[in-house]
Structure formats: structure tokens, C-alpha cells
């Protein structure tokens, strides 16, 4: 199987499967099994499982993930450009929201791509993460709801954020500004389960602010040449922030992106990354898919743009896995 023995890459059809999924009902819940397929549940067949996942997107609320005991905040970082940070931030957020959790995406990249993909206005002058960092607005004033989901929120980024790296240098508590701005009372009032922070492709003060605000880091890694290039530098920075500013900081999650099952290279990269990061690597792998890259052009996540696509399903899988880890963390603590 692609991406290592345990990896799961969603496919539209699995040609190795000879089992029928005729008993899948239009709502994806499945009719009573009968005849030769007795005992085969929907989830046993790849197409059945895919139909079930697509149904979740089309009928939000039909499947709910358990609400975590404690809110989780993840910084999505990799200073390498174009590895899928923003794509992961918005699609994972959408995948969690469609499965019933409340999610806030904080756009910390002046490019504002996450805001675009969530369909949220972010022209200059809109209250944004920039004003939030310099203390001009409260998080509530900068908050916007995504038009695609009542459970998905965004603090957008405008081009004004481009100057923030320099402006922040002379400010008091310059590394703690995002943490202090995203107050507990604000997050409690929003009753948010997951906060995902989308970082720019650099290790400057914006990324440091994100690493101080969140305890978890999610590193997207593109299944391409030089995949691990620069990751060492990122890990050293994470260690620095951990030792000086945020002792709870750790790399909790690694996600393989833009996986192309036709190439040997993709498998080699996946294997190398799993060897390096072990359990932190999600089993779900995001395939390279045209739908994923088209969606932001319509101000949508791939889950809204094409809910049945492989890209949408793989992000749903990743979301479920991420949320299940919440449950396992909870179990370990009890
Ligand atoms: N699974 C995928 N399949 C196809 N295209 C993808 C996939 N994931 C991301 N892309 C495309 O790759 C490009 C880079 O993705 P993205 O913007 O998410 O990366 P990034 O790490 O946030 O980039 P930056 O460092 O510039 O912020 C985008 O054009 C995006 O649409
Ligand atoms: Mg980005």
C-alpha cells in the first residue's frame, strides 16, 4: 500500500476490491446486509467507506466526532514554501467542522490564502490578525464565520501583516502577543474545540508567535524531492521556543501531502518521514489532486468544492485521526 504499510490514501475506486457495495443506500448509511454479503459492513469495503465519508460532507451533522475534553491548538508550520500548510489548515478545519467540532483558523500569513479558501473577506482595512497582534482589536472584533459552515471561524490575514515582522521587533512581549490576544475567555465563549494557526513560510516572529500560542505543532511534508530539507532547522527552532518560551511545545502531528501513488519517490519519502517522526505521522496521506488545488479559486475548501473527491476524503480521514488522538490522549491521562 502506498505511503508505507499502514498508510491510507483515499481512492475513488479500489480496483483490487472484488466485493460489491450494492447495499449502500443513497444516504450512505447502508441497508440491511443480505445474501452473500451478510456480515460485511459498509466500512469493510473501500467504496462503502468512501460513500459514507462523502455522505458526511453532504449531510453535516450526520456523524459527530466526540468533543475533546480540552481545546487543542495546533500551529501548522514548515518554513519551506508550498508544502501544503495552508491547504492543510483549511481542509483539516473544514473536515473537523463538518464532523461536528467547532474550529477556528488563525491566518498568520500576509498572503491571506487561508482566508481566501475559507471564503472570508480579507482586503486591507478588515480587522485581522495584524490588528490583533499589535493590540488594536480584540479577537472577537477580528473574528469572521466561514460562509460554508456555522462551526468554522477565521481570523483573517490582510496584506498589512507583511509589515508586522518588523513592527513587532520593538514591541513589549513580542513573542507572546498572539498567545495573550487569544484569551481563554474569548476561546471559551466561542466554545472552540480546535484552533489551527496557518504560518508563513519563514521562521520569523510571526511563526514564533504561533509556536508560543499553541502547544502542538503540525508539520505538513510534501512527498517530493528534498522533503526533509529544512525540517532540521524547524525542529531546532521548536526546541528553542520550547526551552525559552513554551515548555509544553511539541511536534504532535506530521501529515504527508501531495502524495503521488504513481511514483516510487513518494513511497520513499513517506518511508523516510515515518522513520524520522514515527507515531506522529498520520496514517492518512493527502494525495496530489487537481480538485484540492482548484478549490481555493472558488473561495472554498475541497470538502465544499467536491465532497466526494479523493482530496476531500483524505482530509476527512486525517481529521478523524487527529480527533481520535484527542480521545487516546484522554484515555492515557485517565
Ligand atoms: N494535495 C494537493 N494536491 C494538489 N495540489 C495541492 C495539494 N496541496 C496543495 N496543493 C497546491 O500546492 C500549492 C501550495 O500549497 P499551499 O499554499 O497549501 O502550501 P503552503 O505551504 O501554505 O505555501 P506557502 O509556503 O506559500 O504558504 C497550492 O497551489 C495548492 O493549491
Ligand atoms: Mg500558505
Summarize the structure.
By secondary structure, this protein is α/β, with parallel strands linked by helices. 39% of the residues lie in helices and 12% in strands. β4 and β5 form a beta hairpin.
Could you characterize the architecture of this molecule?
By secondary structure, the chain is an alpha/beta fold. The chain has a single domain (about 10-25, about 35-55, about 65-334), classed as P-loop containing nucleotide triphosphate hydrolases (Rossmann fold, 3-Layer(aba) Sandwich). About 40% of the residues lie in helices and about 10% in strands. The strands form two sheets. The chain has a seven-stranded mixed beta sheet, sandwiched between helices. A two-stranded parallel sheet has the order 1-9. Strand 4 (about 145) and strand 5 form a beta hairpin. Helix 2 (about 85-100) packs across helix 14 (about 310-334). The two termini are about 35 Å apart. Residues about 1-5, about 10-35 and about 330-334 have low confidence and may be disordered. Magnesium ion binds near residues 85, 86, 109 and 113.
